[in-house]
Design goal:
Elements: H1 2-24, H2 35-48, E1 62-63, E2 67-73, H3 77-93, E3 100-103, E4 111-116, H4 118-124, H5 129-132, E5 137-143, E6 149-158, H6 165-178, H7 206-215, H8 226-239
Parallel strand pairs: 1-6, 2-3, 2-4, 4-6
Antiparallel strand pairs: 5-6
Helix pairs in contact: 2-7, 2-8, 3-6
């Protein structure tokens, strides 16, 4: 008698436990982001919202027109080849009609990359004076104040104080990429081109590629704050094949 009662109590408890657990558990949400996708959104908002300096509004900035790059200074064959490679990689990632091209006509360009000595660059571009002593590379991008569309950029790669070729290639990739609207540094990925600490990374980390792909999607407009851009990023990541 006691053994039967114990069995019935156990069976009843097990049934309750199963039923209660089933009712309390959330069903799997097919639209929920994976941990990696959540991290991509977080990294995007960290890198893409705002400019390089903290006084700039935390909104998206991007080019809507073709970036036409004029090369100045004295780049060698290695840096010329690297520039072509970086441009090709970016053009393969963007998919909203934006493209980067190079031009030998400075008058028709809207982006300028100078390779050479810091004093020569400073003489040509005086606003760099307050930054150039502490930096082997610089970029300045210019957004329309009303729309946040980027329309002009100036970049610098030091070939005098920094003679290491790998470091020069890193600087070129970083400055050109940040001039696209991914302007802020971060400190969480050692292999990221956006790493705040000094590195000589010469390739995009996978998450870097995702950030470029996301910013240059037609759904992402310039001028979006975190609250507006986050659901758009989430949707794009769920739709991405």
């Amino acid at each position: 008698m006691k053994r039967g009662l114990v069995f019935l109590v156990w069976a009843y408890a097990a049934a309750c436990l199963f039923a209660c657990s089933s009712d309390d558990e959330e069903p799997n949400d097919p639209d929920a982001l994976t941990p990696h996708e959540q991290e991509v959104v977080r990294y995007f908002t960290e890198v893409a919202l705002g400019g390089e300096f903290d006084n700039e509004p935390p909104v998206t900035r991007k080019w809507l027109r073709e970036m036409k790059v004029y090369v100045g200074g004295t780049p060698d064959l290695v840096l010329r080849s690297e520039l072509d490679d970086v441009i090709s990689e970016i053009n393969d990632l963007v998919h909203d009609g934006f493209q980067i091209t190079t031009t030998t006509d400075s008058a028709s360009s809207n982006a300028y990359i100078f390779f050479g000595a810091p004093d020569v660059f400073e003489a040509w571009y005086p606003p760099a004076a307050q930054y150039i002593d502490d930096n082997w590379g610089l970029f300045f991008s210019f957004p329309d104040n009303s729309t946040n569309e980027l329309y002009r950029a100036v970049m610098f790669v030091d070939m005098v104080r920094n003679a290491d070729k790998k470091a020069q290639r890193h600087i070129l990739r970083e400055e050109l990429t940040q001039s696209l609207g991914l302007a802020r540094d971060a400190d969480r990925y050692d292999d990221s081109i956006f790493q705040q600490a000094w590195t000589t990374v010469t390739e995009y980390a996978p998450i870097d590629r995702e950030l470029i792909w996301l910013l240059y999607d037609p759904a992402i407009a310039p001028g979006l704050d975190s609250a507006t851009v986050t659901p758009l990023l989430q949707q794009l990541l769920k739709e991405k094949v």
